[in-house]
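Subject: sequence -> structure tokens, single chain

Hey, anyone have a minute? Need the predicted structure for the following. Not urgent.
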Amino acid sequence: MADWNEISEMLQKGKAKEVADLCRKALDEGSSAKEILNEGLMLGMGIVGERFKKNEVYVPEVLIAARAMNAGIEVLKPHMVAGPGDRKGKVVLGTVKGDLHDIGKNLVKIMMEGKGLEVIDLGADVTTEKFVTVAKEEGAQIIACSALLTTTMTEMENVVKAVKEAGMRDSITIMVGGAPVTQNFCESIGADIYSADATSAAEAAVAACAS
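Reply:
Had a minute. Here:
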């Protein structure tokens, strides 16, 4: 039987080659790709996420761990049969129009994928129209908006209004986050969820998709 803790520990250390080798070994020993993903890779990324939340590790360590996780996923991909029930939900993610910052957004993506969510990353400087159009086309349950500038935060309110105008407000959860964003701001614009960090955002997204 595969040693899930070993896969988890190597991932936490950012050892991409070792993680890939251990995933191959686990496949050879008869473990399913889904099992390796959930019990090994996601276990490790979950621990990294918790440590990041507690300021025990920082952005570089998270990015290195994510690279190791991706190395493992590349090994598993050919063996994964993705059924409709395999994903916990679909998220459209981006930094709002006028804002080019993406480190926080990228961390949120890593943590959400680590929780089993499908993330459509629109990148930075995303127009309100694009958030809404892609969410509609993809049948996403969540639109997650990031901003690092107080001057671009107002774009989040435009996203909320556009989702309402598109008649999608009952079916879409709108998440907001970023350094200047607060719970009060989230409530004032009519968004649904504010998260202070990437790990909390991923947890809230999974809960929202399950409800």
